[in-house]
Amino acid sequence: MMRCEASPRLAPWFADYASYHRARGNQVTHLAGIPVLMVAILGLLSRVVLVDPGVAVGVDLAGALFAPVLLWYLWLDWRLAVPFAFAAALSHAAGSRLPLAVLWSLFAAGWVVQYLGHLLFERRRPAFHRNLAHLLIGPLWVFAKLFRWKVL
User: In sequence order, which residues have a C-beta less than 8 Å from that of residue 113 and are 6 or more positions away?
Assistant: First the structure.
């Protein structure tokens, strides 16, 4: 797979996020925890239907909230945002089919794994404690790492 570099708009976000994720153990916990959280969060938000699919094209809260986030991702780096959108759609599809109890368990497990990574390996608070936008950068950063984009 081709190794790509983040755009000039995205690179500072990745650099700041990466500064909170230097320890290999913490990176591994995020590579596991963030995809689990994506499935859980998108699955939970999919339960809030905004437009009934029987009337028109269905719209749920996950889609409504992800649309502006995707626009931001596209602005930051469209080359990464486009394939990430497909991964998010798969996470949404998977999460929307899971029972609520499973989604809540995944949600809790995902956060526990994240915090354990910071506690045991990084010994530093998560990046989003300083900047909430990192809650949105994290999934993109993990996706980029998994697909060998240069994330610093």
Answer: 29, 32, 33, 36
Under 8 Å between Cβ of 128 and 135 = yes
Can you give the residue range of the structural domain that contains 39? 32-146
Q: For residue 50, with 0-12 CB atoms within 10 Å meaning exposed, 13-18 middle and 19 or more buried, which class applies?
A: exposed
Asked if 63 contacts 92 with a C-beta cutoff of 8 angstroms, the reply is yes
Q: How far is CA 95 from the centre of its chain?
A: 14
Residue 58, phi-psi category: left (phi > 0), alpha (psi -120 to 50), beta (remainder): beta
Model confidence over 106-149: pLDDT tens digits? 999 999 999 999 999 998 898 899 989 999 999 999 999 988 76
Residue 137 maps to a domain: yes
* Beta pairing partners, 5: 150
**Structural domains of the chain, count:** 1
CA 22, 118, 133, 28 dihedral sign is positive
* Assigned domain for 101 exists: yes
**pTM of the predicted model, to two decimals?**
0.90
